[in-house]
């Protein structure tokens, strides 16, 4: 509920700032355009409902910010979080003068501030320092809001697709608002050179009496004191709590590296990592949303507080095991050992539910290997630029064929490709997808040769081998080279089957197991029994001069072949 209130109140204030910025942007047209738009916007925000929403949102958001600061057991945090925290607590300090000198003076002290004529006159003519502070608070409020939106939205699956548009909005709107603010001020400064215009402005929009203005100035000082006092009170209370809890003893959190961090009760595991300088992923900033800080815990039952419903919801979303918790939510009551499950460089996408095999699993899949024939001789006759161009065209066509069939490119090896099928759809569907990919690769190679008829002395030829069997599948590698791959006897066999295309002078060789799993009748396609190094049993393979000659299985044939195989 607290998180939802904080988000909702922040969005209300963001809506207010956004309408403010849109109104400022109209200064690029004229001050009159700014005033005309303000009349309509003011109807909403100055209404009883709008006032309750706006001031209620501010009171809730600021109170929850103080509460969040109290809950933090450590002030060590990433730069983005620290920036948002500092900017957020500075906003009321800068904004106090503007609110009291406009809205409060207007409502309680008989002033008629107006807006886009009177206020710019004050900020650009009478008191430029106030104008500068108002500009600062506009930028500060916007940056604070955008950091909060970034923490929230980057956890959404659609965020990466919309990111360029959102970034453009976040950059362009304040830019137009600042330009409009200065242009409106420039127009007002030009008008203020006419004494008659200034006299008319003072008559149409009288300001608070000098005595009332002095009271407002004093109120600005005291309200700022109040905001600073609230912040200092929370910080002092945190210090007193830490000293009191320190007397009750410490808790030891052990890490796989052998590091042991001593903390007091109430400190989360994520905070313990930050206090000790141990890298720990936390995309959402410790708000219990992203799950990237998740850890495997070992310790006595009394050391673990049962997870709250929100934590349970996040853990279920990613299919976490029973001994997995969120480091930002777990505040141990006794010694325990923790193991971070994601690298410190984890991204927001790592917080989404992911297939279980990514952590390592044995799966029966179909494996396809493809390789260009006579590429060494071809490369000797080509310049490096032409060679790279040619390979990229070949890789693009191969990749499109694999992905269109439903497979996954494992890797490109020199002039060859390895692809996996059936990781999610099952081995039967995977075998059909692999055969469809081989058929499409053959057709695309024919089209590619036609397109490159003037660039290569002889047509490009490809050899394709497909096999199915159990393999160990998972994310393997190091650093930026981590990817989903497969290892095992089936993978090695598929690679050797692809090599047989040279022996039999054909484009495609598949194991008979692939045809059986795919439910496809190969008819009179040449059949061979071969020996595979390291295997006792001989392997039956079928060869095709052209992969595009593969028969397409009729609807329902797959299930019939599966039943026949079972018998």
Class by alpha and beta content: alpha+beta
- H/E element sequence: HHHHHHHHHEEHEHEEEHHEEHEEHEHEEH
Number of domains: 3
In round numbers, the mean pLDDT is 85
Distance between the termini: 58 Å
Folded structure, characterized:
The protein is α+β, with helices and mostly antiparallel strands and 567 residues long. It folds into 3 domains: 2-241, no CATH class; 251-351, Beta-grasp domain (Ubiquitin-like (UB roll)); 356-566, Nucleotide cyclase, GGDEF domain (Alpha-Beta Plaits, 2-Layer Sandwich), CATH 3.30.70.1230. The protein contains 17 helices and 13 strands. It has helices at residues 2-25, 31-45, 48-71, 79-108, 118-126, 128-153, 159-191, 195-204, 210-247, 269-276, 309-317, 375-380, 384-405, 427-451, 489-504, 512-518, 557-566; strands spanning 251-254, 260-263, 294-299, 324-326, 336-340, 361-372, 408-413, 416-421, 462-476, 483-487, 508-511, 527-530, 539-544. A hairpin with a 6-residue loop joins strand 9 (462-476) and strand 10. The protein is elongated. The two termini are 58 Å apart.
Secondary-structure topology with pairs:
Blueprint: H1 2-25, H2 31-45, H3 48-71, H4 79-108, H5 118-126, H6 128-153, H7 159-191, H8 195-204, H9 210-247, E1 251-254, E2 260-263, H10 269-276, E3 294-299, H11 309-317, E4 324-326, E5 336-340, E6 361-372, H12 375-380, H13 384-405, E7 408-413, E8 416-421, H14 427-451, E9 462-476, E10 483-487, H15 489-504, E11 508-511, H16 512-518, E12 527-530, E13 539-544, H17 557-566
Parallel strand pairs: 1-5, 9-11
Antiparallel strand pairs: 1-2, 3-4, 3-5, 6-8, 6-9, 7-8, 9-10, 11-13, 12-13
Helix pairs in contact: 1-2, 1-3, 1-7, 3-9, 4-6, 4-9, 5-6, 5-7, 6-7, 13-14, 14-16
